[in-house]
Amino acid sequence: MQTQSLFGTETDINTLMGKRKRIGLLWKVAFLFSTTLAILFLILLLLTVIDSSFGYVALRNEVEPSSLIAGKKSVKDFSRAELERVAATNLSSGILRRVEYEKPLEQRTGNDLVALLEQYVIKPKVLKTWGLWDSLTHTKAIDEYSRSEEGSYLTFKSWINAEFFLADQSADPLHAGIRTAFLGSLWIILITFLFAFPIGVGSAIYLQEYAQDNRLNRILQLNIFNLSAVPSIIYGLLGLAVFVRAMQSFTSGSMFSSLTDATANGRTILSGGLTLGLLVLPVIIINTQEALKAVPASLRMSSYGVGATKWQTIWHQVLPASGERILTGTILALSRALGETAPLVVIGASTFISVDPTGIFSKFTTLPIQIYQWSARPQGAYRNLAGAAIIALLILLMLMNSTAIYTRDKLAKKKRLES
Amino acid sequence: MNTSNLAEALNLGFEKKAVTHQQKTSLTLDKVNIRYGTFLAVKDISLAIYERQVTAFIGPSGCGKSTVLRSINRMNDMIRGASIVGSVLFNGYDLYAKDVDPVLVRRKIGMVFQKPNPFPKSIYENIAWGARINGFKGDYDELVETSLRSAALWEEVKDKLKQNALRLSGGQQQRLCIARTIAVQPEVILMDEPASALDPIATGKIEELIQELKASYTIIIVTHNMGQASRVSDHTAFFMVDEQKTGYLQEYAPTEQLFLNPRHKKTEEYISGKFG
């Protein structure tokens, strides 16, 4: 029997219920679809990067090892005595003098000598490179190419390897590495942090805890939001005008000492770090303010209730309660700075530099700039290098972000279970 | 200023007998008007709070009883746009005089809030922190123990003083908040609906505690619970709200008298549960 009410009959209710459930399901599928799409794109990005970081390389030697010692196909097959003899006779006198000056041949290890001979005598040149996918699926074509090129041979190379991290920039893609760029990035981030963190957190505390709610402060607040949305290249122009040009004697260090690198002309790590500091400053301020806002009013009230001053309340109660959020936000902001390229290019970061930065007044290059520069070169091998450098940058970023998450969780847990 | 005269003046004829038995007036509110921006929250509040007695503030929601309570230790200073006219005298001194530091006021007039809000620190630190920032020079272990004993919490927590206070139950947290307030040795304790977030058993413990604390402290308690007001307080102030949503003091009398023999019809209706 059907019961009748203002909601309709039993059947009406069931029909409507079915419809409601279907609408819910439809939305759920839509959300799932967008998530899947996002993840797919991320995977695609990762695959592309990995694809270019590994694969076959066709090489041709300038001097064949067999012409040095008859019957030996690779330098690695040479005996210790042969290595020393070949090195002494075949290295050009200039290089030999430098090598001997650094460390006499007799004292060098076998691997060291092999590397020396490969770099200065054998001089393999990259003819063509293939990605990981091609290397696995088009082996035949690769083989044919190798046979068609006189004197060439194939080798499977992982572009990301120990030497890649330890070597400096080099014109030879087989020996190029990211050490200089990596150190440059670390220095820049250090300066950015030292500049932006205290100033950002300080102004956030002022704006959130002390500032009156008046027109001036509201305008200030609005503009901090606007600043956080300004394109990074604009910050680059600002940095160029202020830090590189106007404050040159300060940022190049000539104000303090005459021993600094005179060719830097203010395009130093200090300028770069300060520029990126300006870039992330609004982000840090906004994030810190949000963290302070999230501290419950009851905590402040209870602090005032036992006769604490404003400063004691902020220092002993509010900051410890919001510390983890402030820290996490700062690390995320620094990750953003780490990946910035445009502003540093504008202020004139070096594109080719093989000297490690030694301090804040050094010229510098950073990982993203290195990647940009490598990927813009016409030779294929540099694109493999760019892929490997991207992996290095991603690893660095992931390390920073997971540190942020780990710190947050650990502090939160500690707070919950403090015994 | 002679505060006891003012107190007498404020208490009309039939209260006089009771008043003469009181020792001293601790706090005197004289024509207090509090505004939030342009909104008049309470008007012309005048009443006297007696030393080492429990005074209850009751009234319907929005009548401004909590506002008046917060004005007594200058907590309203924290609220943007809040302003006060009139005077609040504490032991004869105007709490709103220019040279008075609100931080010192709050140390002398402590506060316990509606929702238990211990610091996210250890039980020990919850008590010690307030004393430390106020420059306490005595033995902290002793202070923690006496404060916890006064708040009837010592036996329950003496073995876990280093534990985070947030792991205590709601009732224990609230007693910890009372202990924390006692630790800075105030003269007056303001309680803003201290038991409204607690279960009946925890509420009972808080009420018992208030009775004990009365011996050493002047207590003002805001409550929605009529039974609680009648059980714990010596004096009751009944606040009402007018058409402009402005609160005012309808009736102020010794608790027994207010509950058994209210002078105003509104009071009678409210305490008998006709509205509120």
Describe this structure as you would to a colleague.
- The complex is a heterodimer of chains A (419) and B (276).
- Chain A has 419 residues and is mainly alpha-helical.
- Chain A folds into two domains: 55-157, no CATH class; 179-418, MetI-like fold (Orthogonal Bundle), CATH 1.10.3720.10.
- Chain A has 18 helices and three strands.
- In chain A, helix 3 runs parallel beside helix 5.
- Chain A is extended and about 100 Å long.
- The relative contact order of chain A is 0.10.
- The model of chain A has no long low-confidence stretch (mean pLDDT 87).
- Chain B is α/β, with parallel strands linked by helices.
- Chain B contains twelve helices and ten strands.
- Chain B has helices spanning 3-10, 16-21, 65-72, 102-108, 123-133, 140-150, 154-157, 170-183, 200-213, 226-232, 255-260, 265-271, and strands at residues 25-36, 39-50, 54-58, 82-90, 93-94, 109-112, 188-192, 218-222, 235-241, 247-254.
- In chain B, the strands form two sheets. Chain B has a six-stranded mixed sheet with strand order 6-7-8-3-9-10, with helices on both faces. Chain B has a four-stranded antiparallel sheet with strand order 2-1-4-5, with helices on both faces.
- In chain B, a hairpin with a 2-residue loop joins strand 4 (82-90) and strand 5.
- The longest helix of chain B is centred in the middle third of the chain and has 14 residues, at 170-183.
**What is the strand tally of chain A?**
3
* CATH fold assignment of the largest domain in chain A: MetI-like fold
State the major sheet of chain B: 6 strands, mixed
With strands numbered from the N-terminus, the spatial order across the biggest sheet of chain A is 2-1-3
Structural class of chain B: alpha/beta
Number of helices of chain A: 18
Q: Which bin fits the share of residues in helices of chain B?
A: 25-40%
- From N to C, what is the helix and strand string of chain B? HHEEEHEEHEHHHHEHEHEEHH
Number of helices of chain B: 12
Quaternary structure type: heterodimer
Estimated structural class of chain A: mainly alpha
